[in-house]
Amino acid sequence: MTGLLFQVFVYLCAAVVAVPLAKRLGLGSVLGYLIAGIVIGPLLGLVGSETQGIQHIAEFGVVMMLFLVGLELEPRSLWNMRGRLLGLGGLQVAVTIVLVMAASMALGQPWTVSLAIGLVFSLSSTAIVLQTLNEKGLMKSVGGQSGFSVLLFQDIAVIPMLALIPLLALPELMNHTSDVVAGAGAGADAGHHGAEMSLVAGLVGWQIALVNIAAVAAVVAGGHFLTRPLFRYIAAAKLREIFTAAALLLVVAIAFLMTLVGLSPALGTFLAGVVLANSEFRHELESDIEPFKGLLLGLFFITVGAGINFTLLFDNLWIVLGLTIGLILLKAAVLFCLSVLFSMRWADRWLFTLALAQAGEFGFVLLSFTTKNAVIPPQIADLLLLVVALSMLLTPALFILFDRVILPRLDQGQQRPADEITEHGTAIIAGIGRFGQVINRVLKGNGYQTVVLDVSADMIDMFRKFGIQTYYGDASRPDLLDSAGLEDAKLLVVAIDDVDRAVEIVSHARRERPDIHIVARARNREHVYALYKAGANDIVRETFDSAVRASRYSLEAFGVHPHEAEKLVTVYVDHDRDAIRRLAQLYDPDLTITENEPYMNLMKEIQAETDAALSSHSPDVHDRVKRAWLPPGSRPDEFD
Prior knowledge:
By secondary structure, this protein is mainly α. The protein has helices at residues 2-24, 29-43, 51-58, 60-71, 75-80, 82-106, 111-121, 126-135, 142-164, 171-182, 186-196, 205-236, 240-260, 265-275, 282-306, 310-315, 317-341, 346-355, 362-372, 378-414, 434-445, 457-465, 478-483, 499-512, 525-534, 544-557, 562-584, 597-614, 621-629; strands spanning 427-430, 450-454, 471-472, 491-494, 517-522, 538-541.
């Protein structure tokens, strides 16, 4: 018991220390987990032989992750991505297998060994790639969706790979493999007992196919017809822990069924997630499964780092490094060519290419399977395990390369010359995204001439197709803003989402035109203060108005009359606008808000004033509200 508690302490301590540090340094959580594993394993020796057993448990995090991914996809969405799933995924796996097999044969390996190595290296890391794409908010991009399609196809492809590998057995390895398995002790026994629990053992090919189809049909039908009554029954008990247990039971049961019939547990839970995507219990399932998924995935990454055999690595350093870099370059070349074939844009091409250029966690499973079935010699398999682990370890670095090196240069390289602005208007709008296009539509609909600038070439071209005149150019460039008619315009709307560029635009406009009216979009309070000091007249926080409207709906939900609710939120908006002006005088960009004592004291004072104003017992709230709703010219304080 003491040993178990010590191991739990070591793993949790490593995660708690390393991951926040890695995130702070901009390395991402995955690299933090991997580094933590290296420190507690090969470097400090705090964990040892139990790592492989823990890894098998931690791999269940991948299963949970694909269940959650499935919950985000409706069946219609999955059908819509069939082209990428079969085209991109199928070509990536097939071409990679052929090229790796050819390279392995060129290095002197038999064709059976070379084919097995190609199968292993054709897969990528579902766990690392999806985790990183979600963290960086890239999952919805074309590159992210294409990468997900390939990963899903790879998970499906593992099934025929497991069926093919035993057919590649080398006779000369059979006796040696039998001796190794016999001497493996408890680990081999565990694998033997696990193999006994199978519904397809001893069946011929067509029978196995029927059992597999029946299992998949059971998952789909059960997810559609049985889970809703089950969760309604459990929800009626109003015990959160039982609902969590039921969610875990669902995932475990599906994974167990898939294992019994020889299918991928991740594939089964993904299908179940897709079936439940329209369920009323979807969000509850997500919130219950998410913490377990995160912990198990983190544990899996730690075990990958801890399992690296540095002695073998240093003894064969150049061989392993050469194979790893060669594998990444080969897969990257295949992926890049496919991205060109499928007409992805440059940013999506590089994201797709670098995200999937590693080997994957299923490589560990296939390599173990190949050695047990006398396909790959153990000494070669040990080196290949290092290549798989090292390529996974380098994956976060590839994402960093994309974020900090390729993407900035790509943006610069794709910039086209600014358009020549041929007309002037009474209003200049910087930014034609979701925020700016609404303002532009309202102004033009009321007869005001606008000049619209944006740095997104794709956005410009799209709006021109709709007959909306827009110009390509960076509004933070003084010469371009001047050529847009700053000298004569009555209004400047800064609707871009770049904080620094927005402040630059406001500052320049206020210096050149002290009399122009400036309406600016702000991301948060700190941005409001910067824009206020730069000279903006009206500043709109991105989510403030929608939050105020939601507050009014919330009051109405409690029975407050709509007119009274509108009056109360009007009081709040007035107080908040006044508070922003007062707090802006004390804001110091060199201090965090909590370090700025005068700011904090005033904030507390303002909060008390706002609470008093909103309170139904406040003596002035009804009077203030009443005056706010009186017609112009009849308010008692207008003539003071």
